[in-house]
Specification:
mainly alpha; 434 Repressor (Amino-terminal Domain); 3 domains; 17 helices; elongated; 53% helix; 370 residues
């Protein structure tokens, strides 16, 4: 039978033992008094008493004196002092985390585990520690202030159908920040990005599994980060645009996986990047059809006009009769997938939402560009 030993690096002592206890044991084994130790070290008796009772830390000087007097290397004394301080700090932190464990219930921890954001555990104090590590904050008071800064100051709209969870939104934003840290981006060049719009639009005709990686590459060349980050349940977010450092970040959720939603959302966010003040924060939620602020009106118009030129669109809708062939012929004429035309017609109320959906390509099962 083989006994499996826990590696020393994995073992966590349940108590913090001061180095003075080791000194005391050695003195007893050698029949040496504290006074004799103090004399040999050239230190006052009171200092040695403090040292043995854990009221004084072992410094490098003290460790060297102990080496001379007791014949045990100074590195040993420094190591046990370090272990004591680390254990003491860990136990204090565990106590603090236990007192904050009630905060854990405010987070969708199980969902975060499924997304690979935190480690699975049933212990509330470990959940609290993992959450603080995920958000890169020291305590839950700091986290609350952080969430207010990340979410409370954002420009966003609430849906009539969905309630917004600031906590889930903050998690989704943090997911984007983690992905962003692994990207290699050139300095943001808005002029170059604008020139690349035709190349980006041409990717609407490419299969999603091939278009998404190329789309990410084109954006990165102009210093724009493009991320497709999985949505969290109950968070009605389509996309966000914000500035991280000096680079714009476009973060899409794939909430709706049809081609018309994806490309309109993307060009809507590109509109924010190119049209609006650098540093503004735009979040697009599930919403009613009419936008309620000027930046979104402008981004909507930008996306609509890039995808389907206004003059051609007016010509299409002038006869007010639509068939699959008419839609397909028009899409071929302007070099865009028919599903995007269907989405525009549905949005504008010119065809019902259950018409021509077989012309839409789904992004379901495709690989994210991240």
């Amino acid at each position: 039978m083989v006994t499996r030993l826990i590696p020393p690096s994995k073992y966590k002592s349940p108590v913090a033992i001061p180095p003075g206890e080791t000194i005391k044991d050695i003195l007893i084994s050698r029949n040496m008094t504290q006074g004799e130790l103090a004399t040999r070290m050239g230190r006052p008796n009171q200092e040695i008493s403090y040292l043995i009772n854990g009221k004084r830390a072992i410094t490098p000087v003290t460790a060297k004196q102990l080496e001379y007097v007791l014949g045990i290397k100074s590195s040993f004394w420094l190591n046990i002092e370090r272990d004591y301080q680390e254990t003491l700090a860990r136990l204090e932190e565990e106590t603090r985390l236990t007192s904050h464990a009630s905060h854990v219930k405010n987070f969708p921890y199980s969902e975060m585990v499924k997304l690979g954001l935190v480690e699975p555990t049933r212990k509330p104090e470990l959940k609290a520690e993992n959450l603080l590590n995920f958000f890169r904050v020291a305590d839950f008071n700091a986290l609350e202030n952080h969430l207010h800064l990340r979410v409370g100051a954002s420009l966003f709209r609430r849906s009539d159908k969905f309630s917004l969870s600031p906590t889930k939104l903050a998690i989704w934003l943090r997911m984007g920040e983690i992905e962003f840290d692994h990207l290699k981006l050139k300095p943001f060049n808005p002029a170059r990005f604008k020139k690349q719009l035709p190349d980006i639009r041409s990717l609407t005709l490419v299969e999603p599994e091939h278009s998404l990686p190329e789309l990410k590459r084109i954006c990165a060349e102009s210093g724009v980060a493009l991320l497709c980050v999985p949505e969290l349940k109950g968070l009605p977010v389509w996309a966000i645009t914000r500035l991280l450092g000096k680079n714009p970040l476009i973060q899409l959720s794939f909430r709706y996986k049809t081609i018309d939603h994806f490309w309109f959302s993307l060009f809507h966010e590109i509109g924010h990047v190119l049209l609006h003040k650098k540093g503004d924060f735009f979040i697009d939620f599930e919403q009613n059809e009419k936008a309620d602020n000027n930046p979104d009106d402008e981004a909507n118009s930008f996306a609509s006009d890039v995808l389907i030129p206004p003059e051609q669109y007016r010509k299409l809708v002038s006869n007010k009769q639509f068939t699959a062939k008419i839609i397909q012929d028009f899409a071929a004429e302007i070099d865009i997938p028919p599903g995007i035309v269907v989405g525009r017609l549905q949005h504008d109320g010119l065809v019902r939402f259950n018409y021509f959906n077989d012309l839409k390509i789904s992004f379901s099962g495709t690989t994210s560009p991240n």
